Structures are given as structure tokens and as C-alpha cells.
Amino acid sequence: MEAGFSEMRNELQSRDALWRRIQLECQQMHTELQKIREYKDMKEVHQPYCVQLIEQLGNKNTKLLLLAQSQERQQEELNEIRNHVYQEEQSHRSEKERMKTEISDLTEELHQKEIAIATIMEKASLLERQLKMELEIKDKLLAKQQLLDSRYKVMSSENTHLKDMV
Asked: Which superkingdom (predicted)?
């Protein structure tokens, strides 16, 4: 997109330079026209020369009109190019702003997710410790239960033996 802008700017500069040359030629032709008019006033004195100058003036006027028409067309094209460049730059700016906003939103969302992950990790760590403690307690209780079961069996067997003896 930047290359397109650069190309359009170069085109604008080229057309501006052409526009300045045309304006310079117009000024030169206006100067010549003024001289011709001065010579025309001296028509009686320099009649043959005046006729030649009038012909030159006519030729110059024709060229001047053609240049003016060309200048108008080029000015219109230049304005169209400027408008297009302006619209592209505006579009580019708004796209950049949209992307900045989107990046900012995504960064904020990422930050929130990182906080959530850290919180979950802390809770998971706490739950893991609690689970280990509960497992230890259950292991102890199981061992105690097994000890009690074996004592019960021993006592039950002693009771049975004692009953048989009595």
C-alpha cells in the first residue's frame, strides 16, 4: 500500500512540475503577447513586420489555448489523484487506528486471561495440597481401619475359642 502512495506522490510531483512549466510558458507567451501588442500599436510604422507579428500572435494564441486546455485537463487529473491519495491515506489511517484498538483489546484480554490462569493455578495448587492432606488422612484412617479389622478378627477368633472352651 505504501508503494502505491509513493507512486501516486511521484505522479503528483511530476504533474506539479509539468504544471509549473506550463505556467512559465504561459507567462512567457503573455510577455510576448504584450510585446506584439506594443508592436501592433506601431502598425503604421512597421506594417509588414506587424502582419508577421500578428500571424505569430495568432499562432501563439492557438498554442496558448491548447496549452490552457491541456493545463485544465491535467489540473483535473491532478485533483482526482490528490483526492484518491487523500482517501487512501484516510483509509490507511482508520485501518491503523482500528488495528491499534484491536491490539489494545487483545492485549487487555490476554492480560485478563493471564490473571485468570494465575488464579486457577493458585487454586489448583491449593486443591492439590488439600487433596494430598486428605489422602494422607485417608491412608492413616485406612491403616487404622485395617489394624482395627485385624484386632477384631483376633478378638473374634479368641471369643470363638473361649466360647468353645466354656
From this structure: Eukaryota
53: burial class by Cβ within 10 Å (0-12, 13-18, 19+)? buried
pLDDT at 92: 92
pLDDT on residue 96: 94
* Separation of alpha carbons 130 and 136, rounded Å: 10
Q: Are 56 and 40 in contact (CB under 8 A)?
A: no
- pLDDT at site 110: 95
| 44 three-state secondary structure | coil
Measure the N-to-C terminal CA separation of the chain; round to a whole number of Å. 108
pLDDT of residue 33 exceeding 80: no
How buried is residue 57: exposed, middle or buried, by Cβ count under 10 Å (0-12/13-18/19+)? buried
Triad 139, 140, 144: Cα angle to 5°: 115
114/105 Cα distance (integer angstroms):
14
What does the H/E/C string look like for 90-154?
Answer: HHHHHHHHHHHHHHHHHHHHHHHHHHHHHHHHHHHHHHHHHHHHHHHHHHHHHHHHHHHHHHHHH
Q: Does residue 52 have a pLDDT over 80?
A: no
